[in-house]
Amino acid sequence: MSRVLNNPHFDGATFFIRTYGCQMNQHDAERLGGSLKACGATEASSMENADFVVFVTCCVRERADERLYGQVGSIKNLPVRSDSPYGKRYIAVGGCIGQRDGQSLIDRLNHVDIVFGTHNLPMLPQLFAHAIEYGGHQMSVVASEKEGASPFDLPLDRPHPWSAWLPITSGCNNFCSYCIVPYVRGREISRPIEDIISEAQTFVNEGTKEITLLGQNVNSYGRDLYGSPRFADVLDSVHATGIKRLRFATSHPKDLTDDVIARFGTLEHLMPALHLPVQSGSDRILEAMNRHYTNKQYRSIIEKVRKTCPSIAFSTDIIVGFPGETESDFQQTYDLVKQVGYQQVYTFIYSPRKGTVAAQMENTVPQDVIRDRFDRLVELVNDNVHAINHSWIGRTVEILVEGPSKKDPRMIVGHSPQNQTVHAKVPATASLRSLEGQIVSVHVSAAKTWYLIGEIV
Ligand code: SAH
Ligand code: SF4
Ligand code: F3S
């Protein structure tokens, strides 16, 4: 299945990939790493030791954007490693900023050799080969989703075998008014279900225990395939490969259908965790965000899912300070968060993104008001999450072991079905390394806001 056309040879060369942004970018970085390895390059431990440096960038909020320009700027004077086959370090910037800025990024940062867009992943090895051949000739290649090539059949370089991301769609058609993603990722394209099943089966055969299906809005899978198959069919088919843990992200509430909800009751290995971004609790703001659901509709979905799967843990994303957000709008968000009782809430301060509809809106909220609302929301979330985690003390959870805990090297860390981080003591007789990638039972003895602590039973 893996393919890199006309592989150039980079024997003796090293690469380093720095990734920002969402899981889709992390997954793209695995494909880029896989392609460079297929050309004979090896992964460097740091940027200093790399002949090829690749930035896979994100522009969803202003902070990520600024950081990238700073980071790329700061490596301008980094010395070339002594045994570099080229006597030069080549720098490539890809991902969402690459797609958005193209040539203008080269104009701004004149030590960047290559800019490539989100639809040009398969070209990266050729672009490096070209840069080496024509030294000093900078290039920008940015295709649209129609002209570009799919990255899904590039070789994968996964950091570990036991869990895997599996993209099922690319792009997004929703145009939420604040969001840049549809502009930098293009229209939604569903990957053929045969490819998804075949990749899932390969993962299972390789010993993978957990698969997370990825898409900006997995629930609209199949809309471009004349309506069939749909997301519920993807869930059934991937589940049938025998995977031990199945997850997916992200769901748009307007597209979460009853047949998908029903799978939480019928598919044994579908994990009881659902990330369902709400963004705001105010109908007025939801409408201005172009989200196509109301507070009431959202809560009724939550109830339905809970009825189907009482042990489910919800997580969400919230934007504070969208243009026109009043104290009363914010209060509705606050109340919704309190009512739902999320296992995890990702809170963001609204960041205007040039080119989006919301960036033109007047009536912006003053930064100190946003900050105050944001802090109140974070405090509520922390209290909620702590209370939920506390209720797990005395219970036993199964975790997929990811490796030694950073808190204490004699402990392991992993995630529960509800996606809680769990640190656990290992019996003196067990070797810690042999537990990596295994699913083990942990008796929970203590709870913090961001994790549980226990012992393996
Ligand atoms: N497709 C996914 C992820 C989108 S980006 C989804 O729809 O859920 C992840 C989150 O970033 C969004 O859910 C939103 O909460 C946040 N986000 C997107 N654009 C933003 C902006 N301009 N300012 C602040 N937060 C933003
Ligand atoms: Fe952005 Fe909305 Fe698409 Fe998510 S669904 S990527 S928030 S436009
Ligand atoms: Fe960022 Fe692009 Fe993902 S803008 S959030 S990396 S799709």
Overview of this protein structure:
With 457 residues, this protein is α/β, with parallel strands linked by helices. It folds into three domains: 14-141, Methylthiotransferase, N-terminal domain (Rossmann fold, 3-Layer(aba) Sandwich); 156-389, pyruvate-formate lyase- activating enzyme; 396-456, OB fold (Dihydrolipoamide Acetyltransferase, E2P) (Beta Barrel), CATH 2.40.50. The protein has helices spanning 23-38, 62-74, 95-101, 103-108, 124-133, 181-185, 193-205, 231-239, 258-266, 283-288, 295-308, 327-340, 367-390, 432-435; strands at residues 14-19, 42-43, 52-57, 90-94, 114-116, 139-141, 163-167, 169-170, 189-190, 210-214, 245-249, 273-275, 313-320, 344-349, 396-404, 411-415, 421-425, 439-447, 452-456. The strands form five sheets. It has a six-stranded parallel beta sheet, sandwiched between helices. A five-stranded mixed β-barrel has the order 15-16-17-19-18. The chain has a three-stranded parallel beta sheet with strand order 7-10-11, with helices on both faces. Helix 12 (327-340) runs parallel beside helix 13. Bound molecules: S-adenosyl-L-homocysteine (SAH), iron/sulfur cluster and FE3-S4 cluster. Iron/sulfur cluster (SF4) binds at residues 172, 174-176, 179, 181-182, 216-217, 252.
